[in-house]
Write a structure and sequence with these properties.
Blueprint: H1 3-16, E1 25-32, E2 38-45, H2 46-65, H3 81-91, H4 96-105, H5 107-118
Antiparallel strand pairs: 1-2
Helix pairs in contact: 4-5
């Protein structure tokens, strides 16, 4: 499955949270791949449809007002390059493989090791 197909499945899963079998169906939404292959569908009652519409409207308004903050899928992996750069800057020098292996054995020691690595000497983190 492509990343877009996975996002479509995630959207359907979120929309399913608005389903209510006790209410009549107002709409059935069908998700297809870019090539037209079926991914899935969801049925929503009127309140669920109204809530979904309000949510999409809010996101669209936010994207219009602050387009610089609304840049999904900037990188090839769909992550914001600025966020990745900040995380990498923060984690320089951390041996994440070592910390994760230690966490499996003793989570407390892994946290202590992380704190020791990130301590800036003044009692605060780097």
């Amino acid at each position: 499955m492509s990343p877009d197909d996975l996002h479509a499945l995630q959207l359907l899963a979120e929309l399913r949270r608005l389903e209510n079998p006790d209410q009549p169906t107002a709409i059935r939404l069908i998700a297809l791949t870019g090539d037209g292959d079926y991914i899935g569908d969801v049925t929503l009652p009127t309140p669920g449809l109204e809530h979904a519409t309000q949510a999409v409207s809010a996101v669209a308004d936010y994207a219009t007002r602050t387009p610089e903050d609304f840049t999904p899928g900037q990188g090839a992996d769909g992550l914001d390059p600025l966020l990745i750069a900040q995380l990498e800057d923060h984690c320089i020098g951390l041996d994440s493989d070592y910390l994760m292996a230690m966490a499996v054995i003793d989570p407390g020691k892994a946290v202590a090791a992380f704190d020791e690595i990130t301590d800036d000497g003044s009692g605060g983190a780097l």
